[in-house]
Amino acid sequence: MSAWLGPKVELSYQLSGHRERAAKLRNPLIDLLQAVRSEGSISGAARQMNLSYRHVWGQLKHWELTVGQPLILWDRGLAARLTAFADKLLWAERLAQARLAPQIDALRAELERAMATVFDDRTQVLSLHASHDDALAHLQDTAATSALHLDIQFSGSVDAIRALNEGRCMLAGFHTRQNPAARSHTARTYKPLLKPGRHKLIGFALRSVGLVLAPGNPLDICSLKDLAERRARFVNRPQGTGTRVLLEELLSEAGLRAEQIEGYTNTQPSHAAVAQAVASGQADVGLAAASAARAAGLGFMPLLQERYQLVCLKSALDTPAVLALRQLLATPAWQQTLLRLPGYAADGCGEVKPMNRCLPWWAFKTATGQT
């Protein structure tokens, strides 16, 4: 077979009445290979995909000619098996899906926003820049059933609040540890961005955050200090993300420096991508939410609970779209959905929360003069 010069990727989308929870982007070759792997035969793959044996067999031969590599071990009398090349292709596709998940979600949200405004005059659109979060993806689906479309663009927590302050969205999503100290790295990061009288906090969720580890925790990592002592390969999040802020604060509290953590400069764009880097063996450990570890079938060492909250300008608090979202968050049905997600708990969902309770570096005097 002739050498293939590498893939050329073309993207497309289709309109549907529902959203599948499988891969963010679908590809017929990947679907074929996954079906053969799961069923162990061409005939089984054909049944799973509701196609004829002849069609599946022909497609596999077509793809082998296209990529210039064997995909199936065609040994007579034995179950169909993927070649090493096909296994690597599936691995690379899973890794790319995890890395690109925030961008894909943002692109899909933008397309849905455009279509929703065309097809449903009742639709309200609420623009939201937010740190990537599994619960937000579920909220987006739930809100859509109530004609409220969340136009989400995923970014780091710091960048999300900056987008709000610059008028590029109506709502921002960010996360901090539950009770950050008044002189902490968290306070130094967020205090210049959020101002009493200008911003309003809306309760959303608590989520468990900790170390994402290979199954069985082979390096016996139980703390950040173990990372340095065992020279574990770490996968980080970029500057401007809430998880990076949290990590820097935790390292400082543990008396550790960034240069003591092997792989500190190795970053991934989302919690899912961090988990996939550990699952693929590119790293030994990362810092992420429990839901990302669970989804990737990895071990998880909880470190703390952090508060994920929404923020808007005071002037937007009672606009129809924000009111609709607050009402949705307060429903028992949504809070039950939240509790079913690994590592999540409700945190005053939909309530307008006092800034000095959630961000305790702010202290306000009451009428009696007490703070």
| Average pLDDT rating | 89
CATH class of the largest domain: Alpha Beta
Q: What is the SS-derived class?
A: alpha/beta
CATH third-level topology of the largest domain: D-Maltodextrin-Binding Protein, domain 2
Q: What's the total number of strands?
A: 11
Q: Point out poorly predicted stretches.
A: 366-371
Largest sheet: 9 strands, mixed
SSE run:
HHHEEHEHEHEHEHEHHEHEHHEEH
Task: Please compute the radius of gyration using only Cα atoms.
Answer: 23 Å
Oligomer: single chain
How far apart are the termini? 76 Å
General shape: globular
The proportion of residues forming helix, as a percent range, comes to 40-55%
Count of separate structural domains: 2
By CATH, the architecture of the largest domain is named 3-Layer(aba) Sandwich
Describe this structure in words.
With 371 residues, the chain is an alpha/beta fold. The chain has two domains: 28-82, Winged helix-like DNA-binding domain superfamily/Winged helix DNA-binding domain (Arc Repressor Mutant, subunit A, Orthogonal Bundle), CATH 1.10.10; 94-358, 3-Layer(aba) Sandwich (D-Maltodextrin-Binding Protein, domain 2), CATH 3.40.190. Helices cover 41% and strands 18% of the residues. The chain contains 14 helices and eleven strands. The strands form two sheets. Strands 3, 4, 5, 6, 7, 8, 9, 10 and 11 form a nine-stranded mixed beta sheet that branches. Helix 1 crosses helix 2, helix 2 (42-48) packs across helix 3 (53-67) and helix 4 runs antiparallel to helix 10. The model is unreliable at 366-371 (pLDDT under 50).
